Every structure is written in structure tokens, then in C-alpha cells.
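Study this one:
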Amino acid sequence: QVQLVESGGGLVQAGGSLRLSCAASGRTFSRYVMGWYRQAPGKEREFVAAMSSSDASTSYADSVKGRFTISRDTAKNTVYLQMNSLKPEDTAIYYCNLRSVTGYSSWGQGTQVTVSS
């Protein structure tokens, strides 16, 4: 099994920045996608950003393009989400996800991000 632990959430004013971290431990996979998702109160969980393990290619939701950046530190088995120019609508619980090409999926417990106006 893979354990994912998110950290770095908090309260920030609109226009501010936060960096989320997701530390992975346990089982290893050769090919997988690490992703960030978020869920606001009363809304469905939605995709935010992802990075492929094979070539570090990235993808982003349109709502965060140009403001958020996903990156990784393979030595630390950690994925980051740098969030700049935060908006109140970015307020949500942010979850880290690992999905292997074999179909295995693991979620972290989530970290709260609150952006005040």
C-alpha cells in the first residue's frame, strides 16, 4: 500500500501564496501519476493538477493554469503544489492522489486551504 500525507494548508488572504506538500511512503510503482484534487463545501471533488512519473509531464485544470505549479522531489518521494495569486474560490480541502498504470489508487487525508477576501 501507498501512504500519502499532505501538509502546508492554511489561511491566506486573496492574492497570497501557499505551497502544499504530499509525502509518499510504502509500496513503489514504476509508472504512475501523482495528482492534486480539491473539494469545496457542497461541491464534487475536482481535478487540479497532475504529473506523470515517466516524463514529469504536467496537466492543470483551466481554473488554476498560470497560478498553480506541480513539482516533485524524487529523492524525498514528495510532490508539491505551489499556489500563487490565490482567490477565495480556491478555498477547499486539497487531496493528493497516486494512480498507477495498473489501476491502483491511493488518497491522502487532505489539507484545508482557506482564502479570505
